[in-house]
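Bench notes, bay 3.
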Amino acid sequence: MQQTVISTSSTKTRFLLDSPGPSLFECLLPTVNLWHKTGAVIIGIFLVSLLAQARFYLPDNPVPITLQGFGVLMLGSVLGLRLGLLAAIGYYLVGMLGIPVFAKGGAGWDYVVHGVTGGYLLGFILATGVIGYLSQRGWNRGRSLWPMLIGSLLIYAPALIWLSVFDFSWPAEGKLLSGAFYPFIPGDLLKLVSASALTGGLWHLVDRKK
């Protein structure tokens, strides 16, 4: 019994330390060069910026529901760890420099560092990295839902810490989860299923080309 437990633990460790496989982007475009990678990162930044403008607000909630999360899921699952992170960090920095790429045309140092959504923006970077890492280690095709689920939850880790540390007068005391987490779950599930279906279809296309 003990040997079985050790063997299972060893398998999980090897999975996490395995060399990464090709990303979906690299499989769709096998002859990838530096120009292709640069273009993919720029397009990723642009698409997330565009998706951020599709938004609506819940009553008494300053954090909008946007399609940014869908874009973040796609960055990690399509571009993989390195390119996905470059795109996510690039998006963050471009907005910090004053280019209006965030929801409702938000931008600038104050928006990123002192704004109520600052933690969510950091969560986008964390989620992209984890999704890209897991996707390149076999959690793709029919299993792409799981890294996306983990990534979706990780968006809220820095967001909730951010809202707990800084005083934005929102959410009200004792209502952190009911204000900053629970209302977004239905939309996140829809984005999660949509992104998983899209990447699954793209992987199917890759497999048909073999």
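Next record in the batch:
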Amino acid sequence: MGDIHGRADLLEQKLNRIMADPVTHNQNKMIIYLGDLVDRGLKSREVIDLILAYEAEDIDQVWLMGNHEEFMVRFLADPENSMEWLTYGGAETLLSYNISVAAGAFNAEKAIKAAEDLQVAMQDAGHDQFFARFQDSFEMGDYLFVHAGIDPEKPIAGQGSEILRWIREPFLSFSGTLPKVVVHGHTVTEEPTVRNHRIGLDTGAYYSGQLTCLRLEGRDYRFL
């Protein structure tokens, strides 16, 4: 699943399609979220609610850490030095938890109060342990799933969190071969990007209304 960015409405539509997909209806399902579930869109809390609701279903889930989850975790831990999160969509995430902010008038005192309020709101919503299960990458068969991409000059085992969550170049312009096909989000394109070594799924859902979901079975794939 590509970058959702607070569009719970689009996520619900895709999850309904996954559950109704006749090809996979009687098979074990795994949903891999490529990160950036939160920020920018207005329903980040509802996105997390939806994802957690599917924990009760017979579906395996993998949650990858995006740069926006990293921003949010930083803000919770050190709000005074992480106020830039608000300008990157964090204000909308706070609003989804009924925490009102005015990003332009923010100061350290208000940031600390907002972080405290967010901690309480996440606990009340059952979200306080949500980020503890996130990981930076996931390998399955011929595929490597990450948020942003990899450094093609380094082995897969040598990729650090900053690369996996933030990289654009030289990954995007790389035209060689890689040990695995990298499935990623992070960089917005109008349509899903398919290359011999990577598949990009971020189609700007929060403003385009197009959330991209890739269905994989072995080497076969299609978009839902």
